[in-house]
């Protein structure tokens, strides 16, 4: 009998393993707090250092309010995709953990200045819950439009005392703790609706810039490819067209606008120059697996709420990203609520509420890289596509990559396997393959990592009142969007397979179900967009999408345009109800409710459309139309 | 007999070792160059990757002109002391080498944009020679003062076509490749003398700034110590007082100066805001030993020429740092020619010529850190003193440190040994000691690393025509300054033991010989300074210096002030000749030639002083005066 053979040493080993892994070591923050010390950062870091020595550690943070400052935070240079890279000051440094549960029991964490609350890196089996993330002073700015002058293109901005500012050389500069920004990337919020303003695109972003001449520009010698969108280049030939003047403390007049001044009563929200404002995301999940965030609120972050990259199996359950209900801010966080780039396994969003952020609700994609140099029979030099992907872990040994001859087709021309990836710098990587295939490549070819796309399930959640979109989904793996609520300034959903040469985000849905959702007003910023965009129109250069089923949804929209789709193998639009919400005057009143082109198999059935919407269907270039 | 016992295996091992180490592997750049490729960066990096696989590799770079661009350079976040930390793009990535000789055979390396030519890190036995370092376009700016208006406080600046610029919101901004700067840190050069202008301090730095109000500043919550000199804080409450207007392409009028406009015919040199301009030093020697640079020219760098830290045994032999004689630039490099912080062993400067740089010729010191928190009986949290020391490797396990109760005395109160140092972030380190001694410490105490000071020998070299000083020497180890030439805008020599709470540079000479040097005009910027400053005056709060001998030197100075000294154990000033150069009108005509206070033993003998200089000696508070 096997059990009879266990000797004393084996038993001892068993007990040690059990104690080490099953009966997790427990740590309490109260044991680490320093009496009279308001800054909890050092205490948390010390506790986590101890917890890192054990497998499956459990950390209890007793309910309370804790302050975190950057001066004694853990520091690391972080490449955070879709953010601005840089030295991050980290409070919760979760690196190289094998099992960690943090239960903060409803605590509130108040961050100060430029910090990253949580960095989860090279770790697995992480469970974090029971906390509210907030900031002492916001890193973006908000002010009420108190007056305007459409003749002189000026407006007066009322600034509350949580918005320190100065007028520097006739410019309004918002001063933060270790940071500052100007009026760039402005948008209007409607304080009545506590959402992005109807028609904001008429006024925002503020037209505040003039182009200027650089003398002797021909003396520059740009030999290699340079991304001139980088902040150090982007503004070299720009100056402010506007001027600011303080009328009284807290009231500033902005004049010299090159567009319409924003309407009185709206709240102007801004965060400064693109490429300099995404510096303080709340969670970074990097090269990790099985990470669950649940029962927590992110009231603020100067960047995204949750950004995951090169990670596997991430769940957000009862995660709310929305403004602190006790404060008067219009904005929750200053970029996407959640964003997953180059992830695999399963991404699950359940019972979440993402509101009032300054960018999309959720974005899931990979990243293309571009062949720059052929360096050998199995070796290429590639450059990243957008500077906010710099340093992104495109691939590792063993990853299957697709190679795309983008001038010919957006589809993968052939595949190969990565042998090594060496980041010479954050913009330029050297990749070797398992095969000698570079004779089939040319400069400008695009590489896509085929292994790192996740299955995505988004259920029982709300995506509303934010700038930009609800969901942007590009994973070719099974994707389910069920029982959610959407109301977004732009599209609720963008399902695209385009080779976008601005962002270089990769993918293209192949198996997508959109079922039982309620869509409130969308695309209310004043531009002409549908509620759901799929693929593209006649000019669509993107990848052919697979099977997309849209059923049992309700749309309550002020404009008729609900679905625009093209470049899909099979598209079903079944049992959907479309009502006219009449919330706003329509801005696209003669648009088609359903506008479909270039679809192989189309099936539109049992769709109820409000009789207010006159132009119901525009169907072109469909091979098999199964519609009733 | 021992030799008789060597068997075949031992012989084989011996041969392998010999081949591996004695007969060095040789690499030629020509084997790595890519045909038709102007950018040599990738070729050099690949060659060095191969060379790194061998001990004592030899690299030959055949004589030629090679261009280096940042886009395909090796990248690493670098803490470079006395510079601005950041991501550096590196051409010669010399990391983890055990023996490397680079012979560039007289080649010229032209760097583009923001780069660091050489990073030598964690390496030993490095020998580099035979190269000229230059830049395609300078990172600082120069322009000729073509007109001025003393009534309206304006001047007109003529800008050559190697100085691309723009006028942005009435400010002159110099545009570089991936960088830009304003008129900050300006100084005048005299094109006739090709040196810093006489009396430049009357005009520079330009008084170009006004203070402004930050509204609701009281809302900030700065709980911990913050260095508000950091660039992100320094300018928050400043605006430009000046305005720029282009009169014609290449001619710009600057008005609104709050001081005197600079004189016509001088060249205005500037490099932009402090804390943002030291980004492209030529050599970084970090945690390395036995590094020899010889027979090479550094014609340009956007930072220091050679910065060494936490390294042992560095020799500069026939290293010239001066403007490219084929170009018309006033300036060679934009900070110190050479600078060694926290080094040990021997620092040797022989037959070097350091000219026209924008900061000191040579600076040798350690760095103090300041106790911020007592974290346990053997554990402290310390902060670095100046933000340009952030990330500096203050100590490692086993280092002997002195502890200074700075409010009581600048001398070391007691010593202990470091057990560990953990950089939580670049500004805040946690140090544990071998002993429980923190009960003897308080917040504000200062730590000094006693082990990492070098012997210094500076011979047969020239230090001239630069902004700031010749040499700043603080090492307590034997220091010899012999057969050199000095002519500097400020002091030729500063020998100090002060606890300078601006820079926090540590040390204090104990054994110094200054012999057989020639001192040309010094301190000609218009302020009242001697040629040699030692210690301080009555208010001197610094550390007592040791034995300082100054003999057989010749001074040819336009001002009488040659030596100011105080706080020294033994000072000898023997066989020195002091002439009146009459180069400029004196700016300090009634100063004492020799001004000595607070010296234990003084010996002044055989000093010949020009009869033009009336006030010859002022000797006070000397215990033993052996002078003749």
Provide an overview of this structure.
- 2 copies of one chain form a homodimer.
- Chain A is mostly beta strands and about 625 residues long.
- Chain A has 4 domains: about 25-130 and about 280-355, Pectate Lyase C-like (3 Solenoid), CATH 2.160.20.10; about 140-270, no CATH class; about 365-450, Elongation Factor Tu (Ef-tu), domain 3 (Beta Barrel), CATH 2.40.30; about 465-625, no CATH class.
- Chain A has 3 helices and 51 strands.
- In chain A, the strands form 5 sheets. The first copy, chain A, has a 33-stranded mixed β-sheet that branches.
- The longest helix of chain A is centred in the first third of the chain and has 15 residues, at about 10-20.
- Chains A and B meet through strand 4, strand 11, strand 17 and strand 32 of A and strand 4, strand 11, strand 17 and strand 32 of B.
Short structural summary:
Chains A, B: Pfam families: Beta-barrel_GLAA-B_I, Beta-barrel_GLAA-B_II, Beta_helix. By secondary structure, chain A is mainly beta.
List keywords for this structure.
homodimer, 628 residues, mainly beta, Pectate Lyase C-like, Elongation Factor Tu (Ef-tu), domain 3, 33-stranded mixed β-sheet, 7-stranded antiparallel β-sheet, 3 helices, 5% helix, 45% strand, Beta_helix (chains A, B)
């Amino acid at each position: 009998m096997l059990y009879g053979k266990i000797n004393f040493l084996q038993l001892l080993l068993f007990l040690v393993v059990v104690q080490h892994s099953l009966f997790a070591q427990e740590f309490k923050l109260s044991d680490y707090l320093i009496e009279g010390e308001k800054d909890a950062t050092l205490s948390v870091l010390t506790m986590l250092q101890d917890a890192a020595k054990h497998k499956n550690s459990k950390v209890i943070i007793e309910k309370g309010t804790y302050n975190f400052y950057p001066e004694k935070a853990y520091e690391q240079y972080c490449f955070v995709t879709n953010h601005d890279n840089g030295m991050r000051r980290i409070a919760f440094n979760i690196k190289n953990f094998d099992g960690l549960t943090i239960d903060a029991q409803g605590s509130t964490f108040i961050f100060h200045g430029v910090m990253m609350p949580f960095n989860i890196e090279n770790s697995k089996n992480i469970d974090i819950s029971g906390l509210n993330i907030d900031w002492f002073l916001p890193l973006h700015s908000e002010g009420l439009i108190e007056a305007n002058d459409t003749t002189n293109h000026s407006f007066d901005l009322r600034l509350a005392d949580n918005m320190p500012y100065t007028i520097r050389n006739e410019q309004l500069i918002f001063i933060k703790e270790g940071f500052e920004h100007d009026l760039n990337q402005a948008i209007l919020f409607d304080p009545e609706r506590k959402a992005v303003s109807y028609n904001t695109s008429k006024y925002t972003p503020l037209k505040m810039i003039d182009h200027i001449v650089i003398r002797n520009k021909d003396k520059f010698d740009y030999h290699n490819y340079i991304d001139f969108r980088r902040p150090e280049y982007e503004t070299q030939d720009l100056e402010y067209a506007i001027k600011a003047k303080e009328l009284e403390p807290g009231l500033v007049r902005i004049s010299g606008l090159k567009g319409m001044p924003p309407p009185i009563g709206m709240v102007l929200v801004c965060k400064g120059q693109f490429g300099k404002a995404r510096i303080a995301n709340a969670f970074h999940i990097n090269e990790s697996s099985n990470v669950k965030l649940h029962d927590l609120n992110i009231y603020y972050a100067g960047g995204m709420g949750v950004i995951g990259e090169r990670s596997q199996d991430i769940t957000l359950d009862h995660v709310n990203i929305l403004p602190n209900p006790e404060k008067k801010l219009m904005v929750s966080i200053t970029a996407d609520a959640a964003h997953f780039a180059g992830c695999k396994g399963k991404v699950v969003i359940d019972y979440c509420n993402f509101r009032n952020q300054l960018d999309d609700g959720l974005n899931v994609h990979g990243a293309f890289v571009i062949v720059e140099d052929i360096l050998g029979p199995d070796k290429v030099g590639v450059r990243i596509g957008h500077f906010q992907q710099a340093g992104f872990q495109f691939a590792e040994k063993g990853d299957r990559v697709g190679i795309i001859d983008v001038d010919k087709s957006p589809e993968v021309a052939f595949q190969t396997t990565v042998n090594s990836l060496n980041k010479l710098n954050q913009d330029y990587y050297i990749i070797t393959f398992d095969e000698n295939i570079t004779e089939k490549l040319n400069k400008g070819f695009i590489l896509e990592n085929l292994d790192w796309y996740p299955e995505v399930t988004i259920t029982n959640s709300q995506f509303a009142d934010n700038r930009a979109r609800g969901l942007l989904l590009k994973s070719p793996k099974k994707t389910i969007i069920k029982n959610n609520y959407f109301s977004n300034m732009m599209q609720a959903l963008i399902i695209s397979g385009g080779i976008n040469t601005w962002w270089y985000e990769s993918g293209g849905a192949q198996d997508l179900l959109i079922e039982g959702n309620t869509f409130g007003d969308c695309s209310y910023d004043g531009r002409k967009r549908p509620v759901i965009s799929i693929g593209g129109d006649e000019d669509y250069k993107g990848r052919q999408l697979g099977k997309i089923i849209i059923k049992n949804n309700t749309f309550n929209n002020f404009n008729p345009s609900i679905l625009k789709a093209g470049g899909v193998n099979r598209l079903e639009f079944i049992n959907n109800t479309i009502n006219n919400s009449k919330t706003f005057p329509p801005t696209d009143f003669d648009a088609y409710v359903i506008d479909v082109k270039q679809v192989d198999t189309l099936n539109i059935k049992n769709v109820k459309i409000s009789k207010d919407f006159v132009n119901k269907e525009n169907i072109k270039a469909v091979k098999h139309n199964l519609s009733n």
